[in-house]
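Is this the right way to post structure tokens for a design question? Let me know if I should format differently. Anyway, here goes:
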């Protein structure tokens, strides 16, 4: 893992260039450019309604961009069918998990592999996923809807792994989880990156954890990138310390919430 991004090179895995996206008249993304290097973790921070989820949806093909370009592994993917983008090696763990509640844990994982025909490799990847999340192995025959919120988050991540992605988009994986589970999830995110070399674009409300785990970070506000830097440098910036890390110098005001707390549903 590199500790910071250098100038743009054509070995970037994901390149988002001046992308705009909207829901009817509501402009959610207003000209965003970012890039992710192979085998790196990049975090995307920003307050509620900034457009983080919309940006991930635009990258994964759920939302069609109105303007701009997106390339993955050097190929243009803007506006392609989401299944095709998954097949190219880019997987999305959506906000709020979205597991199939009436399917078993095992069936949910197999849904993650629906684009694949390499049965032997899928079987191997299932075991790797169960290795990361032993609790899912124990509950493989249980309906996913009966899992706890944390276990459902694990299932959503494991399901994304089953498409054998080169890169994973993760939308608030720690949402609604206890501090202990949040630590566990971050540990696994790091392992998936470190052991398997998968790149991760991580949207997080836990800026402390995200800035520790990631190499590079972007701050999105009102549909625009307002700040980007290595996470080491972002952690030193006064605005980030005050608004995202809840650290005001002299500590007069105590912790200030930069995001309204959401529950995972
Ligand atoms: N399905 C939708 N239809 C219309 N507007 C939407 C839709 N989804 C999001 N928006 C609007 O787009 C903007 C960006 O929303 P988005 O969900 O991408 O923000 P976010 O940064 O993910 O916020 P949060 O931190 O609360 O998850 C907001 O103004 C939001 O109200
Ligand atoms: Mg969101």
């Amino acid at each position: 893992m590199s500790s910071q991004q250098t100038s743009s090179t054509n070995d970037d895995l994901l390149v988002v260039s001046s992308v705009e996206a909207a829901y009817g008249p509501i402009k959610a993304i207003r000209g965003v450019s970012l890039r992710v290097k192979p085998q790196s973790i990049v975090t995307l921070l920003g307050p509620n309604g900034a457009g983080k989820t919309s940006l991930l949806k635009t990258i994964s093909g759920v939302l069609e961009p109105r303007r701009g370009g997106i390339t993955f592994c050097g190929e243009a993917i803007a506006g392609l069918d989401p299944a095709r983008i998954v097949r190219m090696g880019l997987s999305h763990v959506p906000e709020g998990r979205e597991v199939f509640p009436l399917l078993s844990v095992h069936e949910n994982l197999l849904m993650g592999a629906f684009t694949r025909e390499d049965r032997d490799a899928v079987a191997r990847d299932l075991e790797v996923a169960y290795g990361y999340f032993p609790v899912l192995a124990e509950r493989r025959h249980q309906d996913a809807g009966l899992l706890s919120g944390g276990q459902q988050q694990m299932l959503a991540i494991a399901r994304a792994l089953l498409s054998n992605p080169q890169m994973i988009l993760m939308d608030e994986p720690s949402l609604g989880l206890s501090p202990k589970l949040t630590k566990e999830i971050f540990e696994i995110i790091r392992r998936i990156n470190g052991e398997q070399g998968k790149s991760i674009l991580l949207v997080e409300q836990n800026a402390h954890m995200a800035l520790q785990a990631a190499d590079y970070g972007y701050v999105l506000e009102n549909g625009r990138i307002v700040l980007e830097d290595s996470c080491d440098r972002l952690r030193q910036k006064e605005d980030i310390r005050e608004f995202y890390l809840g650290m005001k110098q002299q500590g007069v005001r105590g912790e200030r919430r930069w995001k309204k707390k959401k529950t995972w549903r």
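Format looks fine. Someone answered above. Worth noting: Residues 23, 26, 28, 46, 48-54, 95, 259 surround adenosine-5'-triphosphate (ligand 1) (CB under 6 Å). The chain has ten helices and ten strands.
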